[in-house]
Write a structure and sequence with these properties.
With 373 residues, the protein is mainly α. The chain is built from 17 helices and no strands.
């Protein structure tokens, strides 16, 4: 059989939908074997996981609360990847975004919410974008590898924010490395409070207005990448830099632009954690969400809809995993992290594991169609 006959072009729904579902099923199957090996029922564990993530109102709120962080960081990875850049700096960009919104929120104490909230959002985006622009410029102009520089900038951002929180921004009289509380004008309303104002009662949770902001960002990213001249240039540079240069597309500007957008999106993660829940700047508030965003972006095939769905999946694993660890003490939190790692493994490193089998299936279906035609 020739290579041409073996290579079957899969439809978009199979590449973006069927293959990720098969990878996810494989990850859960391997996880089930691990659960069975320690003497627990895989089906019971799965039931507890699903109930903990979606079984009641508060659980759903927590699932979507975690998903909000992953949407922002997943989009940040995706936009850069469209331009051929592997952005590992979501953690540092989110930290700097949190610093930016904290400076604005505290500095505008006494201002009305209609001015404070947009200004804080803008501050988060600007600080995150500025932090991402430096590694982009270093790669475009100096040849520094974006992976190395963004990783290094994560550590620099963490150290800088920690230094500020034990000195310049530390709340007077506090013994903890945290800033003063944000004014109430800089607090994002909770979703259950907004719905209560409309006469809809749901259980309380940390889910707040930033979830809607994240969904809006996903829609805007799709429109920008697929329907604008700048988005087209980003896709061309990421797909074939030589052709982009031949066509007169400014490579440096495009690289920096993609990272500016990516950094701004990562910086917005602070809206959920700081303006929606903590109401102050604290150290290490990113909690690894920037790194999980890499898996979310790849599992979602760098498409905004896929990223939203993958973010909800990881939110369910975070929330449902906590419930599972509580109900089944033999399943520790470390094992839940191992399950998340298996999902990342099959969705990322082994994303093409089932492609040959699916291509063979479509080849047989095509042959049957021709025979009956």
């Amino acid at each position: 059989m020739t290579a041409e006959r073996r290579a079957v072009a899969l439809p978009a729904w199979a590449t973006s939908g069927l293959l990720p579902v098969l990878n996810l099923a494989a990850a859960f199957a391997v996880s089930g074997l691990v659960v069975w090996a320690i003497g627990e029922s895989p089906l019971e564990a799965l039931k507890l996981l699903l109930y903990g993530a979606f079984g009641y109102g508060e659980a759903i709120g927590y699932t979507f609360y975690y998903a909000t962080n992953f949407i922002f960081t997943g989009l940040a990875v995706s936009v850069a990847f469209k331009c051929g850049l592997f952005n590992i700096g979501g953690e540092g960009q989110a930290m700097m975004g949190g610093l930016g919104l904290a400076v604005v929120a505290i500095g505008l104490d006494g201002w009305p919410p209609a001015l404070v909230l947009p200004a804080a959002v803008l501050g988060a985006a600007i600080f995150g974008a500025a932090w991402a622009a430096i590694p982009a410029w270093l790669q475009a102009r100096r040849g520094s590898h974006i992976v190395i520089t963004t990783i290094m900038f994560n550590f620099i951002a963490a150290s800088l924010v920690s230094w500020l929180l034990v000195g310049v921004l530390k709340a007077p009289g506090s013994q903890s490395p945290e800033s003063a509380d944000f004014p109430e004008a800089a607090w994002l309303p909770k979703i259950h409070d907004l719905l209560a104002g409309l006469g809809i009662q749901i259980e309380g949770s940390p889910l707040n207005l930033s979830f809607l902001v994240a969904l809006a960002c996903a829609g805007l990213v799709w429109f920008f990448i697929e329907r604008t001249k700048w988005g087209y240039e980003i896709r061309v540079v990421g797909g074939n830099p030589g052709a982009a240069r031949f066509a007169g597309i400014p490579i440096t500007r495009t690289l920096v632009l993609s990272m500016l957008i990516a950094g701004g999106l990562a910086g917005l993660m602070g809206l959920n954690e700081l303006m929606g829940l903590q109401h102050r700047l604290i150290a290490n508030f990113t909690m690894g969400y920037g790194f999980v965003g890499i898996a979310v972006a790849f599992m979602g095939r760098s498409h905004p809809i896929g990223i939203v769905l993958a973010a909800i999946l990881f939110g369910a694993l975070y929330q449902g995993g906590a419930e599972l660890a509580f109900e089944m003490p033999t399943i520790s939190r470390d094992l839940i992290i191992a399950v998340q790692g298996l999902v990342i493994l099959f969705a990322g490193a082994l994303e093409h594991l089932f492609r040959p089998q699916v291509q063979a299936l479509f080849r047989r279906l095509g042959a049957l169609g021709e025979a009956h035609g």
